[in-house]
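In response to the reviewer comment on reproducibility (Comment 2.3), we provide here a single inverse folding case reported in full, input and output, so that an independent group could reproduce the run without further information from us. The structure tokens appear first.
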């Protein structure tokens, strides 16, 4: 089913996880989320509150019509209108809090995950990188490996994907021919 014209999400057969591997990945993810346990609980409560505030609006309109207009009770209509105003404000505030909290938790989690991956890669010997052929490094895009390993601000060409992790010779900015010697 498509929502909002977005393309359907498809997973290639070779990328599908079997049930046991999926459970293992979920267990590891839950273990990595432990430091964020309190934030996740608070964000979940805020989500429930935001959803409740959104769902309360139509119920308050129904109350205002049934008890205020049909019974000609002005006080009931006023109560429904004031409650609707309060619920609308609460929905906006809780909705913004929900977005902010979920984004903060997600970005912190991904930062910690990237740091763990980068630390693991740094702990590997250089023999691993010279002997292993890897695919395009997502890590290089995420943590900007070139910015960490180079003192120059202009981008560096990378011939092989494992070159991003290998120490470079002759890449100092004060030597104009260094790039030609390193990548020429």
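Designed residues, in position order:
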């Amino acid at each position: 089913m498509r929502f909002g014209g977005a393309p359907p999400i498809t997973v290639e057969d070779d990328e599908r996880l079997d049930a046991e591997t999926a459970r293992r990945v979920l267990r590891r993810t839950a273990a990595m989320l432990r430091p964020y346990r309190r934030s996740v609980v608070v964000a979940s409560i805020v989500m429930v509150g935001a959803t409740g505030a959104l769902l309360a609006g139509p119920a308050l309109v129904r109350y205002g019509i049934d008890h205020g207009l049909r019974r000609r009770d002005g006080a009931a209509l006023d109560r429904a209108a004031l409650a609707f105003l309060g619920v609308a404000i609460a929905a906006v505030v809780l909705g913004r809090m929900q977005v902010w909290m979920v984004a903060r938790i997600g970005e912190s989690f991904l930062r910690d995950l990237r740091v763990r991956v980068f630390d693991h890669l740094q702990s590997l010997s250089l023999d691993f990188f010279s002997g292993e052929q890897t695919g395009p490094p997502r890590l290089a895009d995420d943590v900007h490996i070139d910015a960490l390993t180079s003192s120059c601000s202009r981008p560096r060409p990378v011939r092989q994907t494992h070159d991003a992790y290998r120490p470079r010779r002759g890449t100092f900015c004060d030597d104009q021919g260094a790039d030609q010697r390193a990548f020429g």
